[in-house]
Amino acid sequence: DTGVSQDPRHKITKRGQNVTFRCDPISEHNRLYWYRQTLGQGPEFLTYFQNEAQLEKSRLLSDRFSAERPKGSFSTLEIQRTEQGDSAMYLCASRHRILDEQFFGPGTRLTVL
Amino acid sequence: DQQVKQNSPSLSVQEGRISILNCDYTNSMFDYFLWYKKYPAEGPTFLISISSIKDKNEDGRFTVFLNKSAKHLSLHIVPSQPGDSAVYFCAASARETSGSRLTFGEGTQLTVNP
Description:
By secondary structure, chain A is mainly β. Chain A has no helices and 11 strands.
C-alpha cells in the first residue's frame, strides 16, 4: 500500500495528557499537510511542511500544538495538555511538488475524556 | 468567515439518475478546486479537480463545472450508483499565495437509493 498512512487510528486519552500522532506520506511527495475535522464540518487546515520546513501554521494551532517533519519524510503532531475541545479527527495529506491534488490518510480519531 | 459553502447538507437520488452537488466560494484568489468523497471513519478520497482556467472537467461518471463569475462550482455524477453514497466535500486553494492549503465546505451527504 503506497498511500498516506497514519498511526494510531484511534486514541482515547484523559484531559491534561499529551498525545502524539504520526503521518507517513506518499514517498515522492514533498509537501505534507495536517487538518482537523469535527463532526458536521469539513476539514480545517492546521499546518503544512515543504520537505522539513514548516511553512505555515493556522491560528487554530494553539501553543499546545506542535508539529515536526525532521527529515522531510514522516511527520508528527503533538498535543500537550489535551482538552475536551481537542476531540476531533486529525487528518494528514501529502502532495507531489508538481501536482495540485492532496491525498489524505485515514485519519486519527482523538477522544479526550 | 466561511469562504467555501455547500448549502445542501443532504441530497437523495434514485440509482441511475443524475446527482448534482453544489458549492459556492467567496475568495477570488482561489484558483484550484477539488471534490473529495468521504466514508465514515475514513479520510477523504480525491475525486476530481478543476483549474480556474477551465470551466469543465470530466472523468468517467464525474464532471465538475466551474462558473467563475458566479463563484460557483458543481459536481455531476451520472449515472448515480448506490456505492456513491457518501459525504462529498468541495475544497478550494489559492496556489500562489497559500501553499495550496485547502479550504473545505461543510459537506453534502449523498444517498443513492436502489
